[in-house]
Amino acid sequence: MAETYLNYIGGHWVPSSTGETYRNTNPARPDEVIGEFQRSGPSDVDAAVTAAARAQDEWRRTPAPLRGEIIARATRMLVERKPELAETITREMGKVLVDSGYDVQGAITSGEYMAGEGRRMFGDTVPSGLPNRLAMTVRDPVGVVAIITPWNLPMLMPAWKLFPALVCGNTVVVKPAEDTPHAAVRLFQILEEAGVPPGVANLVTGYGPEAGQPLVDHPGIDMVSFTGSRTVGKQIAVSAGGELKHVSLEMGGKNALIVLDDADLDEAVTGALWGGFSTAGQRCTASSRLVVDRRVADKVVEALVEGMSALVVGDGLDPETNVGPLINAKQLERVHAYTGIGVDEGAELVIGGEKLGDELGGGYFYSPTLFDHASPDMRIAQEEIFGPTITVIRVDGDEEAIAVANGTRYGLSAAVYTRDTARALRAVAELKAGLVYLNAPTIGSEIHLPFGGTKDTGNGHRESGTAAIEQFTETKTVFLDYSGTLQRAHIDEPTGDAPA
User: Fold this and answer.
1) What tens digit of pLDDT does each residue of 337-387 get?
2) 386 and 417 share a domain?
């Protein structure tokens, strides 16, 4: 019988007020039940937000180095349990163990970095324009933060948001994606064991309309941090922004990997295979568009077909597998529908485009798929498919390559393969993306650098590194006057002169 997992509210593991649960299954073997999880509703959200609000003042007053020490303890537990956590992620989400290991390692690296921020979290001390006065800035937490995370990075994304939010003194309520709640439960078990005080971190599982939207709308929430689809992100921007809550959105990409005519083609193809088919293409930074100079396009496509033919699709727990299943039946149908769209639009289906579930035990498997001779305005070249599909767009020269790369509503990640430094730097200057890679695919961010995109990818915020500290704090400007008399700022003086 499958285990039933509970919500974590106010330091206690509790059932939902609805009394309902939902079943979570392995996408490689849908008849394998991972567990029963709470199908939470607005009352559960209210209880979690209330607990977070009650705990906020005491947590805010806890010295930041001590908050960092708790994050450090949790991080050490992640290190110790990395193999079993990676297996948990693969069974729940489907991706291969190597990818799941990266998922856990991302959480570890975030924890290591953010624990140190407990002793940094720098403000500025600057000269005052008046004598005998100090001027400085300090950081205060935003308050109670709602964190809503996607299913493709079920350990990394909650940790990536949680750790900086907590070390900055915020209290949080996390609503993980309904497809991958088990990884979040495991993370919260570790946080509890590490000594996070009751109410500081709360977990509510369930579906978006029933738990996610009530969390966004709750009047006790001061900030919403969301990673997911553009459609849901826009809805959050309207509802939370209308209440003047802080809102941080990361909403996907349609990332271009550019191959110029002087590129090392072996490296470019290797990068495209990793960038396009890691996590079965279910990554916001996936290399889903291959923008190739026409002079080398035939060689690139030929090498891609050879490389894709060698990819092994199957259960992510099998060490021989390169590409695991898609997350669920709905996503499988979505990806397959885009194959039909590409064919109808006139792109050439070179390889793939098939459901593989019947021959692989009934899981949500899809063959790695390659389209060639696509035009930049085709839907398969504009819309985020979120599956193992690469679309090749042939171009004439650098200028057209960059124009095509920039020619979508998204601006998350872009890559350029070239051996010419000047061409590379011109591309960096012209590409409209938050992340740019030279001679590497569009995936693989580092925790101490900002992460996020331009245009419809987000709303201008960045995650990770010091950017996360900026996101989860309010800046307070402080003036300390020890002159013993009233000093008026220069701006208040009619002549602009300093006071006598």
Assistant:
1) 999 999 999 999 999 999 999 989 899 999 999 999 999 999 999 999 999
2) yes
The span from the CA of 389 to the CA of 269, in Å, is 14
**What whole-number distance in Å separates Cα of residue 390 and Cα of residue 382?**
12
Pair (94, 111) in one structural domain: yes
Neighbours of 142 (CB within 10 A): 20
Same domain for 232 and 159? yes
Residue 290, domain extent:
256-438
Same domain, 184 and 326: no
> Is the pTM of the predicted complex or chain greater than 0.90?
yes
Task: Report the DSSP pairing between strands 454-455 and 410-411.
Answer: antiparallel
Residues 414 and 335 in one domain: yes
Domain count, the chain: 2
Query: Active-site residue among 210, 284, 384, 463?
Result: 284
How does pLDDT run across 468-483, given as a tens digit for each residue?
A: 999 999 999 999 999 9
Provide the CATH number for the domain around residue 184: 3.40.605.10
> Is 250 among the residues known to form the active site?
yes
| 445 in any annotated domain | no
Token pair of 165, please?
A: 């939010």
474 is catalytic: no
Q: What CATH number is associated with residue 372? A: 3.40.309.10
User: Do residues 304 and 261 share a domain?
Assistant: yes
Q: Of 117, 178, 250, 384, which is the active-site residue?
A: 250
